[in-house]
Amino acid sequence: MEKILNQNMPVKELSRIELINSLQSYLDRQISGKNLLELWEQSSQDFQPIYYNLFHLVCDEDIRLKDDEYSKRQIQQLELLIEGMKKNESIDILKEISFL
Q: Which of 3, 23, 87, 96 has the greatest number of C-beta atoms within 10 Å?
């Protein structure tokens, strides 16, 4: 299935495995937050609630540098999201993982 960003640029929706890999790459600091969000923009509509949660995660990068406890909490949540996606948990469960 393809999602159309505009009439001239069809974009292939990313698979669940590709989304999991993007999260792991972000966790491992192999891609930037901006790259993570760009990849997730290519996810299906079903994953959009998670995209919005990830937006908060990425926006908090500067806070994580200053606050170790906050950083640990957000990393734990990211690890929960990765594990939940690997276990094929429902979107309703995954969207409850918060980075606030």
A: 23
Question: How many Å apart are CA 74 and CA 98, to the nearest integer?
Answer: 8
Residues in the chain predicted with pLDDT less than 70, given as ranges, are 1-12
In Å, what is the CA distance from 10 to each residue of 47, 57, 65?
18, 28, 37
- Specify the pairing of strand 9-12 against strand 2-6: antiparallel
On whether the CB atoms of residues 85 and 22 are closer than 8 A, the answer is no
> Of 89, 87, 58, 93, which is closest to residue 74 (Cα–Cα)?
58
User: Whole-prediction pTM value?
Assistant: 0.83
Q: How far apart are CA 95 and CA 51, in angstroms?
A: 9
